[in-house]
Design goal:
heterodimer, A: 204 residues, alpha/beta, 5-stranded parallel β-sheet, 4-stranded antiparallel β-sheet, 6 helices, B: 232 residues, mainly alpha, elongated
């Protein structure tokens, strides 16, 4: 089954300030949508609006030609979300956190140990999450994406807090996800340098 | 061409995992549970010291005092129901998960009741001794608290969800919840008074049970809707 995500006429105001107006986009398997713009330009708001976390002033987001607000469960089942907050419990260990998360989404079938090794987290398995550095916690959030069977990755500043090696890792994970027919919407203020078909939306 | 049936993560499994996670968080930080419990015990223990030890006076005011203390203790614990999840972003993950949000809201309420309502019910016989309640009265007190705290946890989760995005929403939360919690307080306290006076209690218990049922059927959906609004 082929998948696609379209947006048309997306408009959002915050107070009386217009963040974006009549935005269009179309996303097919293997493609990435890059949301660019400086701080406060509304990248995160656009991302959250596509994810259905905030309501748009007008416009619709279509998942396989079906408005997402009509088919929220179908859309949520196809998406995994990475915001600037990692969304884990600091008191629980990495494994406990990911085990809970795995009950929220369909599993991708990847082995947990394998994913943790790939992300360089194997040694931190038994530690409470709060003792991990911000960058390491971002890597755990990447583990969530790898463990979920969702074709659409939505990432808000995936490279923040990560070292050079980590940023490279994000790039290679994205590339292989898109190479396998996935899709991604990435909000970033710096360029994500990977060689895939990329649509760009620049917010003012 | 027939599309393959779409699969979703199991609702019951996710709900169970959420309750388990919240319980294990409480084990790591028992203070959140102990504070309201301590408050309940303190109010209940101080009252007899203030009004004097006469048995009939204590037996007369006991049900009311214990119920007011229980209600305030429940309110005290409600503020933190969604706050931590909101701040660390795990609430957002629940919002974008394919598991229905109302199921997750119910899970949060269940975990809240297990860690705030149930302990209250368990310590109430000890506190009841201070008021020289007979065994029968203590039994009814526990029963009313059991039914009443279920309602309070479910009702409170709606208020907690509405106020989670606000800073210092405690006063507003109380204002929202208290009017709707009044029937629970009135019927709870009166039922205990009635049994102490030797009257029948079935009516009061039925009402409390009916109110709890109403809350179970409404609260998850109202809480889910409120969470979506608060997260805008």
């Amino acid at each position: 089954m082929s998948i696609k995500l379209n947006g048309s006429g997306l408009t959002l105001y915050r107070g009386d300030r217009c963040l974006f107006k009549d935005l269009e986009f179309a996303l097919n398997p293997g493609e990435m949508l890059l949301l660019e713009g400086k701080n406060g330009s509304g990248k995160t708001s656009l991302l959250r609006a596509i994810a259905g976390l905030i309501e748009l002033e007008s416009g619709t987001v279509l998942w396989n030609d079906e408005p997402v607000e009509n088919e929220r469960q179908v859309f949520c089942n196809s998406m995994v979300w990475m915001s600037h907050k990692v969304g884990f419990k600091g008191d629980l260990t990495l494994v406990d956190n990911l085990r809970f998360e795995s009950s929220l989404r369909l599993p991708s079938g990847r082995e947990l140990d394998e994913v943790l090794r790939q992300l360089g987290l194997s040694r931190l398995k038994r530690l409470p999450l709060r003792s991990l550095s911000a960058g390491q916690q971002r890597r755990v959030a990447l583990a969530r994406m790898l463990l979920a069977a969702a074709p659409l990755w939505m990432m808000d500043e995936p490279a923040s807090n990560l070292d050079a090696e980590g940023r490279e890792l994000v790039g290679s994970l994205l590339a292989s996800h898109l190479g396998n027919g996935g899709m991604a919407i990435v909000a970033a203020h710096q360029d994500v340098e990977i060689d895939v078909p990329t649509h760009r939306i620049r917010l003012q | 061409m027939n599309e393959p049936e779409q699969q979703y993560p199991g609702i019951a499994a996710a709900l169970g995992e959420l309750v388990k996670r919240d319980l294990s968080l409480v084990v790591k930080r028992p203070g959140d549970v102990l504070n309201p419990l301590f408050f309940f015990g303190m109010v209940a223990a101080l009252f007899p010291l203030a009004v004097g030890p006469a048995a009939e006076q204590l037996q007369f005011s006991g049900p009311g005092v214990l119920w007011v203390a229980a209600l305030l203790a429940a309110l005290l614990s409600l503020n933190s129901l969604f706050l931590a999840d909101f701040e660390d972003g795990s609430l957002e993950q629940l919002l974008v998960s394919p598991v229905p949000l109302s199921a997750m809201a119910l899970g949060k309420s269940i975990a809240h009741w297990l860690t705030s309502g149930l302990p209250l019910v368990i310590v109430s016989p000890v506190v009841a001794m201070t008021y020289q309640m007979s065994l029968a009265v203590t039994g009814v007190l526990m029963l009313t608290l059991l039914l009443g705290t279920v309602s309070l946890s479910l009702l409170g989760s709606i208020g907690a969800a509405l106020t989670v995005g606000l800073h210092r929403g405690t006063a507003l939360l109380s204002l929202l919840i208290l009017p709707l919690a009044m029937p629970v307080l009135i019927f709870g306290a009166r039922t205990v008074s009635l049994v102490a006076a030797g009257d029948g209690v079935a009516g009061g218990l039925y009402f409390l049970a009916a109110y709890a049922m109403l809350m179970i059927s409404i609260s998850p959906f109202a809480t889910a809707a409120a969470l979506r609004i608060s997260n805008e």
